[in-house]
Amino acid sequence: MARRIIHIDLDAFFVSVEQVLKPELKGKPVVVGGKPDRRGVVASASYEARKYGLHAGMPLSTAHRLCPQAVFIEGNFTRYQDASTKFMAILADFSPFLEPTGLDEAYLDATGFESLHGSIVQMAAKIKRRIKDELGLPASVGIASGKVVAKVAAEQSKPDGLLEVPAGSERSFLAPLPVGELPGIGKKSELELKGLGIHIIGQLASLPPETLKYHFGTAGVIMHRHANGIDDRAVEPPGEARSISRETTFGEDTRDRRTLEATLRYLSERVGKSLREQGRPARCVTLKLRYADFTTITRRTTLKQASDINQVIFATGLKLLKTALSHEKQPVRLVGIGVSHFIEPARQLNMLDSSAVRQEKLDRVIDRIRKKYGFTSIQTGRTLLLQDIFASRKEGYILPTPSLSR
Ligand code: TTP
Ligand code: MG
Predict the structure, then answer these.
(1) Residue minimizing CA distance to atom 11 of ligand 1
(2) Where does ligand 1 bind, in terms of residues with CB under 6 Å?
(3) Which segments of 158-247 does DSSP mark as H helices, in order?
(4) What pTM value is reported for the model?
(5) What is the model's pLDDT at position 268?
(6) Going by C-beta distance under 8 Å and a sequence separation of 6 or more, which residues neighbour residue 228?
(7) Do residues 212 and 179 lie in contact, with contact meaning Cβ atoms separated by under 8 Å?
(8) Which ligand lies nearest to the CA atom of residue 50 in the structure?
(9) Rounded Cα distance, 61 and 48, in Å
(10) Residue 185: strand, helix, or coil
(11) CA-based angle 395:44:246, to the nearest 5?
(12) What is the C-alpha to C-alpha distance for residues 101 and 135, in angstroms, rounded to an integer?
């Protein structure tokens, strides 16, 4: 029997959360991402705003030019995280086979659940109802025998849709759609396929797999299977995060070392906090810089000893920053820092190093104070100058484009 996989994705997620708080925004062109004089990009646009050509990733200034009457909102990431947690809790009530693939999307394996709900379509309708009733959010759902077709079906049904692709009709469902609609095909592959005269998924499905392998390597073989509606990947419960990072774009490109270092310190402390919450120290620290002309570089250091200490993350990032800036004269547009390669904790090793022990204790005390009184209630001298650059609230400074990477 064919599997029944559900893919569910909330509609205009960030915008919809804002509309729950301010119902007067419903039915209007709304953008979350920042005020139009900010240099960031659109994170989420309401469907009314999309009629004017607005979409995620578009610079706010362009969005404003295309649709000056849109309401532009800064947004609040904590709010979206909160809504996401509640959304996933509702899904978990329906099936233990749950794979979240983003803040606002997940796969559910519903194979064999027909008798519980009448049909899988009825099950999906119940899921949508609960999300609407309890969170006030619209969702779109696709149902198919595999993940890829379920995801495309959800996308095709937006907004507020529900679409089932019956077993056996996966291929014909996909065939007329543009190749760019197939998950896994990015802008680059799309262009390359167009160069080969391949525009719709049906054409892709008919190509010999060897041809696709020749052009795209193993990704081409997977592309061929997916274009034919074949996808037996399991719905897998989430693994642990593989990296934690934070980044921000400056309001104005900057060469000012003190600003860059203060921001790096602040971002390092944010990363450190998450790292300590997950309880596994990291071996690698990565610095990310984007220069005024959008050239983006990343530089990584492997630590001798895995760490979750603010000072270690910052000092490592700072060294990378200084080296990078000595090679580049352009002003900086974005700075980010991340950690990866987590290990299981082996505290006893650290005990040999009394300064590390002291710093760990200090970080834990700081975490407790911040939990109680807010992130900016206690600061290192270095980050104080950020008060003049960023607004703040209890959860910390309000960065123009906070990183979504977890
Ligand atoms: P999406 O599900 O891709 O977009 P959406 O929910 O706004 O709209 P829809 O699903 O109806 O097409 O992303 C979910 C959220 O993730 C989105 O609301 C904001 C955030 N996001 C960004 O911050 N930047 C981005 O480039 C994208 C694509 C999403
Ligand atoms: Mg969405």
Answers:
(1) 11
(2) 9-14, 43-44, 56-57, 103-105, 158-159, 404
(3) 170-174, 187-195, 201-206, 209-216, 218-227
(4) 0.69
(5) 97
(6) 170, 171, 205
(7) no
(8) 1
(9) 18
(10) coil
(11) 40
(12) 19
Q: At what angle do helices 77-94 and 13-21 cross, to 10 degrees?
A: 100
Looking at the domain 171-227, which fold is it?
Answer: DNA polymerase; domain 1 (1.10.150)
CB 289 within 8 A of CB 247: no
Nearest partner of 289 among 249, 244, 326, 245, judged by Cα: 249
Structure tokens at 43: 């994170």
> What confidence score (pLDDT) does residue 238 get?
78
Residue 309 structure tokens = 């200490």
Q: Would you state the pLDDT for residue 286? A: 96
CA of 44 to the centre of ligand 1 (A): 5
Superfamily of domain 243-398: DNA polymerase, Y-family, little finger domain (3.30.1490.100)
Residues annotated as part of the active site: 105
Asked whether the CA dihedral 61, 63, 69, 74 is positive or negative, the reply is negative
* H or E segment and range at residue 248: strand 243-254
Note the CATH architecture for domain 1-165.
2-Layer Sandwich (3.30)
**What atom of ligand 1 comes closest to residue 56's alpha carbon?**
26
> Which residue ranges of the chain lie beneath pLDDT 50?
348, 404-406
Contact 363, 310 (CB under 8 A): yes
Structure tokens of 145?
Answer: 């025998």
Peptide bond just before 159 cis, omega within 30 deg: yes
Please, are residues 107 and 150 in contact by the beta-carbon 8 Å criterion?
Answer: yes
Residues forming a β-bridge with 227: none
Q: Which residues surround ligand 2, an ion (CB under 5 A)?
A: 9-10, 13, 104
For tokens 């659940």, name the residue. Answer: 113
Given a contact cutoff of 8 angstroms between Cβ atoms, the answer to whether 64 and 76 are in contact is no
SS3 content of the chain, % helix, strand, coil (to 5): 45, 20, 35
What is the DSSP-derived secondary structure letter of residue 381? G
**Is the four-CA dihedral 180, 183, 189, 193 of positive or negative sign?**
negative
Cβ 205 vs Cβ 227: under 8 Å: yes
Which tokens hold the place of 116?
């519980």
Domain ranges within the chain, ordered by starting residue: 1-165, 171-227, 243-398
